[in-house]
Every structure is written in C-alpha cells, then in structure tokens.
Write a structure and sequence with these properties.
Elements (H helix, E strand, L loop, with lengths): L1 H23 L97 E5 L15 E4 L5 E2 L4 E3 L4 E11 L4 E7 L3 E7 L7 E11 L4 E6 L8 E2 L7 E9 L9
Antiparallel strand pairs: 1-2, 1-11, 3-4, 4-9, 5-8, 5-10, 5-11, 6-7, 6-9
The chain binds calcium ion.
C-alpha cells in the first residue's frame, strides 16, 4: 500500500517539473508565426537530445591595438667605462712671475787661494836731469823702487812680464818751457799731457792710466814736438817721476806660479 502511495506522489511531482520546464522555454509570441505550421515541440517526456555540432573555424586575426601610454621613468644606469686618454694639448701662455724666494744656504768654503806674493810687478823711478831730447823714450835713472827690474833704464821702457791689469802714473816738473808728454804702449800713443809753462814759475804736469797688458808689452813716456828738447825738468829739489804696478794678474792654468 505504501509503495503505491510513493509511486503516485513521484508521478505527480515529475509531471509538474516537466510542465515548469515547458513553461520556461516558451518564447514570446511572434505575431507573424503561422498558426497552421505544425508545432514540432513535444512534451518533455518525448524529447531526445541531438548530437553535438563540430567546432567552428578560427576567426580572422584581430587588428592591432592602440599604442599604450609611456611607462614610468626607469632607474639610473651604471657608470660607463673611462674613455681613452686624449692627446696632449697645446702649451699655454707663461704664467705671472712668482714671488721672490727665500735666500739659499751659504755655499761651501772655497779652497785656499794662491798668494799674491807670486804675482808682483811694480816700479817707481825718477829723473836725475832734465830730459835732453824729444821723440824718444824718457830714461828715468833714479830708482825709488824697481825690485823686479821690470823697468829698464837702458831703454826707458817698462816691460810686462805678468799679464794683467796695470796702473801707471807720472808727476813731472815743467821748466823752463811747455811740456808735451805722451804715454806709449807698444809704439802707439794712448794718452797725452800738455802743460803751458808760465814765466818766472814752476809748473807740474801729471797723468795716470790703467791698461791691460800682455806679457812682452812695453809702456813708456816721451816728449813729443818739433823742438830739440821739452820742458820736463828735474834737479836736486824738483823731481819728475814715473811709477806703475800690477793691479791684478790675468791668471789662467798655464800662467800659474810663473
Ligand atoms: Ca801750466
């Protein structure tokens, strides 16, 4: 009996379910549908599903999309490798002169020098009588000093033995006429002295000079003019003198300790 009730209830529930499906599949009524066209729709209890269709063909590729927006700024890249060394540039202009430097340290003490004792040459001579002739060397025969005998009273000339720089000077008494005196170096006049004599008077004439001499050079005084004798005078109380000395020698390796 229970079985029959269950079967009846199941039948009734199944019938309502199918009726609900049929009601869900009802499409809107088309006003142009032919009312005489047979309706192939059948109750759910008589429907059978068809065979699935084959997949369709792939469609055509779509068109390119629009360009996208710029992305955010990226991170800073790594430093590159150093480039090759360039060529040397042109020399620039000279800079301004720098400030004066500090004084340097004193140098080493020099070696002991040679004594000037080895380089001596000096003389001082005078007249004993008035000069007797003109245009010849005056011969001074009074010797105040002639230790090296570089002055020769036989010729009246100083002869250089030590090359170097010499100083010469003379002091002459002028009487009783004008005195014209020239100083010679190797037959060439290098200096003149002219003194005009004043009557009833006694004059003096003088001169001095510095000369560089080589060994063998000669220096002397002589009266010049057309007269037979000049006014260069001397007696017991009036001297006329001629002097000279070496100021400093020209020292070379070959001249040492001459
Ligand atoms: Ca005078």
């Amino acid at each position: 009996m229970n079985f029959l009730w269950a079967l009846l209830i199941g039948f009734l529930l199944g019938g309502r379910f199918c009726q609900a499906q049929d009601e869900d599949q009802v499409e809107p009524e088309d006003p142009v549908v032919d009312v005489h066209r047979p309706d192939d729709r059948q109750p759910c209890t008589q429907w059978m599903g068809g065979v699935p269709g084959t997949p369709g063909h792939s469609g055509h590729p779509g068109r390119d999309g629009r360009d996208g927006h710029d992305g955010p700024k990226g991170d800073k890249g790594d430093s590159g490798e150093p480039g090759e060394k360039g060529d040397t540039g042109e020399k620039g202009p000279d800079g301004p002169m720098g400030p004066r430097g500090f004084p340097g340290t004193p140098g080493l003490k020099g070696e002991r020098g040679e004594s000037a004792f080895m380089y001596r040459s000096s003389f001082s001579v005078g007249l004993t009588d008035p000069v007797p002739a003109t245009n010849v060397p005056i011969r001074f025969s009074k010797f105040f000093h002639n230790e090296q005998r570089h002055y020769d009273d036989a010729t009246g000339k100083f002869r250089c033995v030590l090359p170097g720089v010499y100083f010469f000077t003379y002091h002459l008494t002028v009487y009783p006429k004008d005195a014209r005196v020239s100083l010679y170096k190797n037959d060439r006049t290098v200096m003149f002295t002219y003194d005009q004599f004043q009557d009833s008077n006694l004059d003096q004439a003088s001169g001095s000079i510095i000369l560089r001499l080589q060994a063998g050079d000669e220096v002397w005084l002589q009266v010049y003019g057309e007269e037979e004798f000049g006014g260069v005078y001397a007696d017991n109380t009036n001297d006329s003198t001629f002097s000279g000395f070496l100021l400093y020698p020209d020292i070379t390796t070959g001249d040492r300790r001459r």
